[in-house]
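Annotators were shown the component list below and the corresponding predicted structure, then asked to write short factual statements about the assembly.
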Amino acid sequence: MHTKTLKALSDALSAGELSSQELTQHFLDRIKQHDPGVNSFITVTEEQALAQAKAADEQRAAGNATALTGVPIAHKDIFCTQGVKTSCASKMLDNFIAPYNATVVEKMNDAGIVTLGKTNMDEFAMGSSNETSFYGPVKNPWSTDHVPGGSSGGSAAAVAARLAPAATGTDTGGSIRQPASLCGITGLKPTYGRVSRWGMIAFASSLDQAGPMTQTAEDAALLMNAMAGFDPKDSTSTDIEVPDYTADLNQPLNGLRIGLPKQFFEDGLDAEVGKVVQEAIALYEKLGATLVDIELPNTHLSIPAYYVVAPAEASSNLSRFDGVRFGYRCKDPADLEDLYKRSRGEGFGEEVKRRIMIGTYALSAGYYDAYYLKAQKVRRLIKNDFDEAFKSVDVIMGPTSPNAGFKLGEKASDPVSMYLSDIYTISVNMAGLPGISIPAGLSNRLPVGLQIIGNYFDEARLLNVAHRYQQETDWHAQVPAAFA
Amino acid sequence: MSWEVVIGLEVHVQLATQSKIFSGSSTEFGAEPNTQASLIDLGMPGVLPVLNADAVEKAVKFGLGIEAEITPKSVFARKNYFYPDLPKGYQISQFELPIVGKGHIEITLEDGTTKRIGVTRAHLEEDAGKSLHEDFHGMSGIDLNRAGTPLLEIVSEPDMRSAKEAVAYAKAIHSLIRYLGISDGDMSQGSMRCDCNVSLRQKGEEKFGTRREIKNVNSFKNVEKAINAEIEWQMDELESGREIQQATVLYDVNKDKTFAMRSKEEANDYRYFPDPDLLPLEVTEAVINRVRQSLPELPTQKIERFMAELELSDYDARVLAADRVLADYFETVVKESGAKPKLCANWVSVELLGALNKNDLDIDSSPVSAEQLGGLVKRIADNTISGKIAKQIFEELWINGGTADSIIEAKGLKQETDTGAIEAVVDQVIAESADQVAQYLAADDNKRKKLIGYFVGQTMKLSKGKANPQMVNQILAKKLV
Amino acid sequence: MALDKEDVIKIAHLARLQVADSEVEATTERLSSILGLIEQLQAAPTDGVEPMAHPTDAVQRLREDVVTETNHREEYQQIAPATEEGLYLVPKVIE
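Structure shown to annotators:
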């Protein structure tokens, strides 16, 4: 049952072959049995899940079910869930019971989707390995001494280990696509503004975007149908119609123009990973696509620009965690300054504090122009590169990450080397474009992802291109042996 | 040494919207603590601001009211600092591109002269909450009801040269925002607050001196007193050869002194940057035109009309047009009484304003309504009562209410215009004043003019003020021959 | 660009983060290495390039001026570290 896709489970539920309560119980049991070795969940909402499942079954019986009614999923612990701990994997919010639902959660609830629990992540989504969580690192189900990637590492690992049929994630610099790649699942980061950010605890507001993490592109399309859409509560969400993302999944790829950026295949790309990606691209050629060499000349600047913009926004976004209205408060503050400094000093982990300090510095008097403004200009250059490329191609392909999963602890002490592992994903956030990572093979028995980048609001095409590949291959269906 | 005072004002005006600038919470004053603090106002994790259309419209109105450029695309920025009444750790404000650009406003000084004061900019921002310093076991209490109330911060050029000019400017802004209906301007509730930047320089010097900023002054009276106290302090310092350090100060009303706020350890570094949660704010020509159409008559236009159409003096027109409510009051009196505007103007600006001042009331809370005063002036104009009796009736209206007509009726104050009745009284006065009559008859014309006053006074006294004074004069002149 | 310890102490204060004396040196080193990465930006030719603050070219959408919120004080203050009489308590605020 647990290896079935969301689509298959949805069909089985519609056909009356199983109930949501059975299904939900099955996954709860699996979490109980397998999660201790993976650590992909921070909170399991068993009671609530079963209640939701019961309601879903009743809804089905009453004949007013959606395609996803009764299907269980997990939410990254960055989404506010009313009455349920929402920690952002931080000591700062270890005691935070969210007083409201994120729009994404609300929409999923409305669709009848069951919430199994809240998944582990890098603290405040800052990390690429899931090692910065207050609740301990997540292990890669393919090899438990490897990282699952981050920051949505818990969601990726839970789906890879089939502890949940699907999960939500958020992506600020690659946080959906990179862990999807490292865990061998499908992860879509939609266009900035496609999915509401209301209730999603902000890391970098101009970069953050929520998306689905699933076994297949078809499942991602199903979840997008439930997640996407304009939200009056989010001024930056875009008011354009949401298509049925499942409608065009099977469109043939004849004549599809695939751009291959030279800069995505240069030094720094692991040879094995490169080989896997090239094989995937070759398959697309067989499916009728044409390959076009393109340039994204400012790719190398995306990391330095990102590490100004994201920390700058984060330094401000995280100022609200001050020990006054919610969250961690230090013991016996001597005065106001002590309250702030110790609550924040003790409540935040090292990486979060580093980024707050970098951002504070980049915005401070005398450095604003040299860092923040400069980074914003470079951001424009990066976007211009993509705009230029999309004049001659329909999608852009390359690796999601330069390596397959690395070992726990391997990069933990060297933040800069960790940052560099997001080289292929960050520019997509800087431009605000949609991107998807799909499993395309293995390197040393660890999954490798193919990244497909689309033009603004072209998610349907990305899902179509990914789906056709998954019709021809079965990388997405492979499950790590221990969890099969 | 001869010093010149340079003053610039930053006026914070609470915009009279129903809901807050970025949330759907009520802005009503005086609610129980934190009952009007929503998720957004509390800065909960994951919340996002959505801008209030009416706050934007009110800011545009103000911009048009000072003939300023409206910025086609203005930008919201975050001003970052930690303070318990600032829930997010940053204030959403506007920094580089404010919604309202350069404009100007005219002020009237006490001697009736006018001066144009430049307005550098006006920008939208959110208000902070309040720290209550009552002792909660050595702690302060935070109320966030006010957090997120829309503010328009109006920054003047350093164009004022005295505390009086600063007050006149503050009053002009106050008048304008009330005319525009964008704020109640109630300073006692903090709807309008002034920060005053004060510096001194030697006469003839081009360069500005170092300024100190007096924060949060909350009445016109205190604007004047605080600035004068600050000028005195700075002058003492400079005369003693000390330098002024840039500082933020508060005014202590009881001591009539300014004192520096506990100096922050670091210079303020607010780390302004464009708020990524808010896209650029576009104000199109179409919106500007629509708002322009909706603008009421503004003070300067009203002054012109009062002079041209109602034939008021420049002085009267300015006094009456200074406040929209006052101007409306005056026009109602004119309409209700059907009397000459000049007579109405006297009654409003002298009698009514005098009484209000004496009782420390403003026009909004006048015990005598415009209709009541109009009814009174009507009876002066149609000679039913004399001006003197009218004052008596006004007092009666002030204390007990009612209408002028009912008081005239009840107290029998109707002016005596019956010739026979007045003649009878005059005859009585003449009969009882043989000495004065002899004196009068012996005097030349010049002296007679002085002496006649006695007879008029006696006649009025005897008639309890009801005799028509002109008729008394005529009859006396006829009889004293 | 390398930071010195004084810089780090100043930044930590601005950001209201306690950094123990014993951590200042290591923090300085790590922040400096990150700034080293960021420094690559300076080589980028950006004359005449318009800064990009948002990924979209859209403009701000406005909300109608309507009160939509009701009082949830009890609920919201359940998760607060310290409240009394409906107020959030903090160590004494001195101006």
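Statements collected:
1. The mean pLDDT of chain C is 94.
2. Chain C is about 35% helix and 10% strand.
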